[in-house]
Every structure is written in C-alpha cells, then in structure tokens.
Write a structure and sequence with these properties.
- By secondary structure, this protein is mainly α.
- It has one domain: Four Helix Bundle (Hemerythrin (Met), subunit A).
- The longest helix is centred in the C-terminal third of the chain and has 27 residues.
- The protein is 55% helix and 5% strand.
- A hairpin with a 4-residue loop joins strand 1 and strand 2.
Length: 168
C-alpha cells in the first residue's frame, strides 16, 4: 500500500490550514510504515529505547483519542491500549500487528475528524485534566500537529534504520 500525502494549502483560512497540516502529518506517519512487515514495524531503535514504528502508530491512536474524544467531546472512555491510563503502554507493541494498530489509529482519526468538523468554531473550549487547564479546539489541533511532527522525526530515523529509506 502506498499512502497519498495531501499538500497543505499555502493560502487558506485558519481552520482549513490546521486540518490540512494535521492530515499531512497523519499521512506522513502512514508513509513511514508503508511496505514494512509486522516484524519490521515492531523493530526497536536502539537500546535502551523501546521506540518502534508500530509503537508510534499506537501512541498516536492514544493522542487522537485523548485530545478529541476524551477532552473536546468529553467522552468517559479508557485509553485504547491501557485501561489503567498508562500512556506509555502504547509504545510497547508486544506482538501487536499492523492491522490491529492501524485499525485503532484510523478509527480514532475518524472520530477526531468528525468531532472537529462538528465543532462550531476553533474557540470551542474543554478541560484538559492532565494540564489542569481549559484549552480551545485551536490549541488541541496545534498540539496534535506538533505531536505528529515530533514523532514523524522519530519515524524517519526508525525507517532509515530498518531499510535505509529516508525522505519526506
């Protein structure tokens, strides 16, 4: 499977631009995983790190779920990979498969898109308990974009270590 990555607009409104950059970064993570086996996706970077591409996909499912469903939509649901609320659990894929991780991630992305689209404005505000602060949808979108951007840098190094593939 080859992931298509949309080019963000160079001139657009705020909401359209934020959506486009978020989708760009979502597609970037998927591209870094294209063509790899489950075993390769579980490959760890270097000791003592346990970071893997599959762990990043699982982590981003948690990020999407937390910020859009739990914070903005105020859903009382557990994390995807840890009923105990351990955010680090997603990073350890164990024997997880691409199908499991990508299904969970794509499900959460679908929920996030629906929640963001339904919000009347970027000024919608909700409480983020971990920060003990109220945040706007605008801040949530920016935070999630930054989260992807940081982890896509990790994904680039992980992919290069697996098969030498580098690039956008």
């Amino acid at each position: 499977m080859t992931t298509e990555r949309p080019a963000p607009p160079l001139r657009a409104g705020e909401r359209e631009t934020l959506r486009a950059y978020l989708d760009f970064h979502r597609a970037t993570l998927a591209m870094k995983c294209d063509g790899l086996s489950d075993e390769e996706l579980r490959s760890r970077s270097m000791p003592p790190s346990t970071l893997s591409l599959l762990g990043l996909v699982r982590h981003m499912a948690e990020v999407e779920r937390t910020w859009f469903r739990r914070v903005i939509n105020k859903e009382d649901i557990p994390l995807v990979w840890s009923p105990d609320g351990d955010y680090q659990a997603a990073y350890d894929p164990g024997t997880a498969t691409r199908a499991q991780a990508f299904t969970a991630w794509q499900t959460e992305v679908g929920h996030a898109r629906r929640i963001e689209s339904a919000a009347p404005s970027l000024d919608v505000t909700a409480h983020q308990p971990r920060w003990n602060a109220d945040v706007s949808l605008r801040v949530v979108l920016l935070h999630v974009i930054l989260e992807y951007a940081r982890h896509n840098g990790h994904a680039d190094f992980l992919r290069e270590g697996i098969d030498g593939v580098v690039g956008p």
